[in-house]
Amino acid sequence: MLHDPNHLYIFDTTLRDGEQVPGCQLTTPEKIEIAKDLESLGVDIIEAGFPVSSPGDFQSVVELSKAVENVIICALTRAHKNDIDVAADALKFAKRPRIHTGIGASDMHIKYKFNSTREEILERAVAAVKHAKSYVEDIEFYAEDAGRADLAYLAQMVEAVIAAGATVVNIPDTNGYCMPDQYGAKIAYLKEHVRNIDQAIISAHCHNDLGLATANSIAAVQNGARQVECTINGIGERAGNTSLEEVAMILKVHQQQFPGLSSNINSKLFTTISQKVSSMMRMPVQPNKAIVGKNAFAHSSGIHQDGFLKHRENYEIIRPEDVGLDEAGIILTARSGRHALKHHLERLGYQVDKDELAAIYEKFLVIADAKKDLCDEDLNALMQS
Ligand code: KIV
Ligand code: ZN
Known about the structure:
single chain, alpha/beta, TIM Barrel, Recoverin, domain 1, 2 domains, eight-stranded parallel barrel, 10 strands, elongated, AIPM/Hcit_synth_CS, manganese, EC 2.3.3.13, pyruvate, amino-acid biosynthesis
């Protein structure tokens, strides 16, 4: 597969790694609705499911393959012949099908999950890729728990699966174990030591157990990865996966650090898709979540509000409009200052001079101490009192 070295491929796994979270299960129509939104968002690959896991998941992959035309549709398998047969069947209507197969690469997995040896696992990895290749051209291989795998062995595995036909090599930090410098160095090592690495795209797939999933994915990109696997709102196993919106905005805010590199993501759709995924999956977004949390663009302390109202870039590195929000929030609490209060009064049509504002502010503080935050009705009542 020819790939563009200046393109950062965004691989969305909301419907697979995200959907496997307890309570987040979706119906096929819901998955189709989200997949269409992901297509509009500009993702390059949608991981639609793990077809062998259940008849429902199989059917979802079939239906998504029919409904979504302009994105690669990917199905997950273990390195089992039957998994691959079932995935290929589920993908039969996909215009651009991809099979994502793989096996554990760390000694921990080799010994305690597979009760096997490095040699045998290598053979199974190569056999799985060859079998998948008999069905489709686009094969992604995942070396599960690569974050804790022996580097030389990982490089040997990656080289062997590329030789067998893998077009993308996924280096998952399955347990969210790595630090950014370690994960970045792993990617750099593979770039340097795997002789056929230029024949494949390196993919980062990071989990958030230490809160480092996004940082690790970015470190991977800085070291040559050209695909990032992520989910909307960062949902996924345990502490979640890399958050799609964070990766896209880091790329935008720090564009000079990624010369020439771009993705197709339309960040203006983030707020809508985040809210839809959250409500369909019954998974609330934490208010302080970067980019899409309720407070991500809300200024609440007096010092910040005053600085923001003087010049928004004092406290704003991303424009709310860029992620689909109408405006930044100036929240009125007991920590707010006169400047914020005046701003809201003017917004509601009240013009007050300096002395009036000082008097109103004293009353405002009494109410604000009693309430957590004030809304427009509170301000109107205050002005009428
Ligand atoms: O975290 C992981 O290793 C995975 C693989 C199945 C890609 O999700
Ligand atoms: Zn995962």
